[in-house]
Design goal:
This is ABC transporter ATP-binding protein. The protein has 381 residues and is of the alpha+beta class. It has two domains: 169 residues, P-loop containing nucleotide triphosphate hydrolases (Rossmann fold); 126 residues, no CATH class. 23% of the residues lie in helices and 32% in strands. The protein contains ten helices and 20 strands. The strands form four sheets. Strands 6-7-8-3-9-10 form a six-stranded mixed β-sheet, sandwiched between helices. Strand 1 and strand 2 form a beta hairpin. The longest helix is centred in the middle third of the chain and has 17 residues. The protein is elongated, with a radius of gyration of 25 Å. Bound molecules: adenosine-5'-triphosphate (ATP).
């Protein structure tokens, strides 16, 4: 493992009740990084988290977890690396990992104080007291130590769950959908505060979420999962700028999709020909599509759409839906061209121009570095 790596997962597969849930999964996490696992429901996010925590056993592959808290290369010694394989299981309590469950799993019959100290009750009383006082302060829970979980708000319960997970001073924190039970209005504020706390503690963390907004606010890196594998891992900016597959771009809703046909390197669409591909390295792009695939899709961001005012003879779309947002009017456009192979129904377009429902207008694509993906493999399953 590299000096800065806290966790490495190699060729991991996991079977549950004879079903393959994870296959050939690779992942590395550096000290101090917060990684968000995202993907559609059922893709295996919780299974991966539970396998790292030690609640599932790998069928193949290997996990390596460092147990020390330091990222200083010369302090890392081999004995501090736990290696977990199908033949060498390490119990969850020996992994030095803290886990926060979606429902927080606080002990209802224990006070805040006893919940927090649950995992450190073998330490001397003075040490327990000192860690608890620090955590109460850090998580703004001072004064609530005698309360029971049912006497706390959802946000306070989450803070207690975090304090309890941090008390044993884990190397890694795992959080399963940590913000899903928090009121939508408070969620953003709480995410920013929790992120600050984890950064202050230099704590490494992996969290699971369904929400792209959550992952962009809370994570340093994101891993997009699909059908039991990680498709792409990188910083939010890297993944948004260069999604490596149709599934990644689609899950993160990076733009609208319109069908295209490739004819000698030139793409045709229901809103005209795309700018020339002369500058595009087709060799490189062939990893994303096969020229004759029947399901080539262009990823189109609203800013790449140019509106021709008064160009009615070139009308190619009509306005099917209008809503008002903080970015101006949001229109959903469908193509007028009914060529089934190229028509589209929901092109998202933000503009300050006032258009009316059913109005036909002309648009043009103004991008030069467009991204075309092949969604055929996904349709085949
Ligand atoms: N104990 C189990 N035995 C058998 N199959 C399971 C078990 N736990 C989960 N699965 C299956 O594994 C797949 C992945 O489940 P998992 O909970 O890891 O997905 P997820 O991405 O976290 O989903 P969600 O976002 O809906 O929570 C699902 O098809 C689920 O039905």
């Amino acid at each position: 493992m590299g000096a800065n790596e806290l966790l490495s997962v190699k060729q991991l597969s996991v079977k549950l009740h004879n079903n393959v849930i994870l296959s050939d999964t690779h992942l590395t996490l550096n000290f101090g990084d917060i990684l968000g696992l995202v993907g559609p429901s059922g893709c295996g996010k919780t299974t991966l988290l539970n396998t790292i925590a030690g609640f599932n056993t790998p069928s193949t592959g290997e996990l390596n977890i460092k147990r020390n808290n330091s990222n200083s290369a010369n302090l890392v010694v081999q004995e501090n690396v736990l290696t977990i394989t199908p033949f060498s299981h390490v119990e969850p309590q020996h992994r030095n990992i803290g886990m926060i469950f979606q429902d927080y799993a606080l002990f209802p019959h224990l006070s805040v104080e006893k919940n927090i100290c649950f995992g450190i009750n073998k330490l001397p009383k003075s040490e327990q007291k000192s860690r608890m006082t620090d955590l109460l302060h850090l998580l703004k829970l001072t004064g609530l130590e005698a309360r029971f979980p049912h006497q706390l708000s959802g946000g306070q319960q989450q803070r207690v769950a975090i304090a309890r997970a941090l008390a044993p001073q884990p190397t890694l924190l795992l959080l399963d959908e940590p913000f899903s039970n928090i009121d939508a209005r408070l969620r953003n504020e709480l995410m920013l505060e929790m992120r600050q706390i984890l950064k202050q503690l230099k704590m490494s963390a992996i969290f699971v979420t369904h929400s792209k907004d959550e992952v962009f606010t809370f994570a340093d890196k994101i891993a997009v999962m699909h059908k039991g594998s990680i498709l792409q891992i990188g910083s939010p900016a890297e993944v948004c700028q260069s999604p490596n597959s149709w599934q990644v771009a689609d899950f993160l809703q990076l733009g609208s999709w319109i069908p295209v046909k490739a004819i000698n390197g030139q793409f045709q669409s229901a809103v005209g020909e795309l700018p020339s591909t002369e500058d595009i390295d087709l060799e490189e792009n062939t990893v994303k599509y096969k020229e004759y695939s029947p399901k080539l899709q262009l990823l189109l961001k609203s800013q790449a759409i140019e509106y021709y005012e008064g160009g009615f003879e070139k009308n190619n779309v009509q306005v099917d839906n209008i809503s008002i947002t903080e970015h101006g009017f949001h229109y959903l456009l469908s193509s007028i061209d009914r060529d089934l192979s190229l028509s589209f129904e929901q092109l998202s377009f933000y503009s300050n121009f006032l258009l009316t429902l059913g109005q036909r207008i002309a648009i043009k694509i103004k991008i030069h570095d467009y991204q075309v993906f092949d969604s055929y493999d996904d349709i085949l399953g």
